[in-house]
Amino acid sequence: MRRKTRKCWNTRTLLSEANTDCITILRHIITLRGTLLILTVRRIIMKRSNVSVLKRLPVGSRATATAKPVPPDVKVDTRAFLKCRPEYTSLSLNLTQRPHPIEWVDVLPLLQKVSVLKGRMKPSDVSQFLVELSKLHPDKMPLLLSDQRFIMLLRYSVEHLRIFSELQLLEVLQSFVWLKIPASHTVLDVFEAELRRQANQLTLHQLLLAADLWRCIGRQVPQYLQCLYDSVHLHVGQVGVPELVQLLYIIGEGRHCPKDLIHPVEQLLMHHLSQLHPEEVGTVCLGLFKSQTSLSEGAVTRIVDRALSFVTEMGDFAMVNVLKYLRFSYLYHRTWLEAMAQEVPRRTHRMGVQGLMHVTLTCSALHYRNDSILTSVAESIPSLVPHCRSKDSSKLLWAFGTLGFIPIQSPGFYPSLIDALRKRKAEFQRYPEHLLTGLLGLAFVSQFPEDLVTLALSPEFVYLSLRNSQLELKKDMFTLDGAVALELPQWKGPRLSGELREEVAEMLWKFAKSDVCLKPEVLEAESALQDLLGGDKFVCKRMILPHTRSIDLEVHVDSNGQPVPVNLLCPKQSATMIPSPQSLEKINSGVPVTDKLLAQLIKGKNTTDSLASSVKVTPTPCQRLPPDEGGRLFDSVLDLTNDMIETLTKPIRRDSTHQASVCQGFKGPIKIAVQISSRNHYCAQSQQLLGLHAMKRRHLKIAGYRVVELSHLEWSSMLRKSRAEKLGYLHCKIYDNL
């Protein structure tokens, strides 16, 4: 009776000191027998929900949905950095050093003691019992977790929680790791609350160790982590290399870094950077990547420089982590990427599909195309298809399509990944974005697997994808639908509804009007073309192909090379505007090419002299300069070429022979799409268009347009020139294209 009274008194005391949340939790803990029932019911519910998902899947996909998860092809030690220094022993749990296992017969006496002592157990007894039981062989753990005596021990651990020492508290938490207590177990709620309460009393090492134990258990504890982050400000002087690396590891696993912690972390990193080992640099980069933490460009550059100093010593996992953070930071570190051109090909055979996916995804994000990297990855992928998740396949297809890797360069690459997508169809029910990402990558290189396209554009899949009203998925479907319409004219499969197409096109146009339409280079090109052609009715700034997500300046000319009004095409412009007589006169003449204009173009030469003596003629036609020449096309004097002079001085009413040669094979007006390109439309330091922009160029030609590009190198230089020089440049561009 006395023991029972003492137990009740202890419980009442604990309840009176706890807040409402803890009271609720403790009530669950005291009835831990019911926890097993709850977990059983939860498993039944999950099974039933899986069945309901299967019923919604196509018949051919149900077998795949019940398949086991894709096994990893390469085992990666994500905690390899812990081997770099002995100091990590006090900050983390070494999962490779499990206590020597004991058998069930050795456990029975311990459980018997629990049933005998019951309420007479001291805190040291409870912690010692849990530590000893955690040594049980892993195969026997389910038997222990269901034993009523063990459940009783958990209950007493809760009752003694407030009087555990810091060491005992951490010992019990560590025993939960080896016992494989489920991360959702209610006993962990109480331990987390107690650790938060004692956070101010724990040392920085103890806080980091507890955070690592929660990570090993697999439980997300954002409130506890906030206590850890708050304490870092108080213990900045104690943060050395191991504390910093462990902190960034925890930050990454928690997927969040408080804003007020970013600056101190950056300062600590820069201070200790020269002491970091290769695997520690990889862990730092992974933590920053997972937590989406942006450091200054200078700091990121120094981190990558440090990685570059021992790149050949880095493990594959660490090297890939550096690439991940480069991708997140959008930092084009040329020397590191050149090193990757050497390192990746010699490592592809051992890296595994996920590592290869991240390598190519970084290359595509940074617009870095290197055929050595792409070819080596493409040759390795077919043998790794059994290990490809839908995410891996889709990201690889996107990256290779973005970088313009055509199928002929590695015949087995695209077919193998398309088959991988087919085998993982069931995953699209949960991750519809993976199917759309993969299909867009394929569309960039004109590949359209019809069964997968049919699935992606089916009403059921569209509904599934748009349940959360994600704009990105709408845009992806819109782009895929537009590509199918143009490149598969005989397509009989499903298409997006007209309402959805209009909705996305309107959203894209609204964004374009507030962004790209207002860029100085676009406004200047639009204004100059209007002057050149005779007014704003001859230039239409619009999204000719909305599914390509960008604008163009549309110009039409007739069979004589004269401008034709296109204002009817322009969004939200009146369709009843009639040109004035003055405008009609401009239509017939465009910009008159006079001696005065030529004089302006050649910087004040004597216009009374003959053209032969006043115009500097070069024998080669006007060309875009390569990037390494700086794009200085018109630095001092505009060098007029033979072709430009001929175009500028030729009477606008050409003879019949010239008209016939220009207009042969054309019916109706010639449609011209003037594109103001950006360096972001191309692979870095290359004339290779990126996937979306290469596809747009292809689609404009299919739609009957001639493409005139005002390259960023040429046009950015022209923006500093006189109006006359801009008009001469545009005249050359437009009419040379005819």
UniProtKB/TrEMBL annotation:
Which taxonomic lineage does the organism of this UniProt entry have? Eukaryota, Metazoa, Chordata, Craniata, Vertebrata
Keyword Mitochondrion included in the entry's annotation: yes
The protein depicted here goes by the name: RAP domain-containing protein
Identify the stretch annotated as signal peptide in this record.
none
Annotated PANTHER family: FAST KINASE DOMAIN-CONTAINING PROTEIN 5, MITOCHONDRIAL, FAST LEU-RICH DOMAIN-CONTAINING
Residues forming the RAP domain are: 672-732
Keywords annotated in UniProt: Mitochondrion
Where is the protein found, in the record's own terms?
Mitochondrion
One Pfam short name? FAST_2
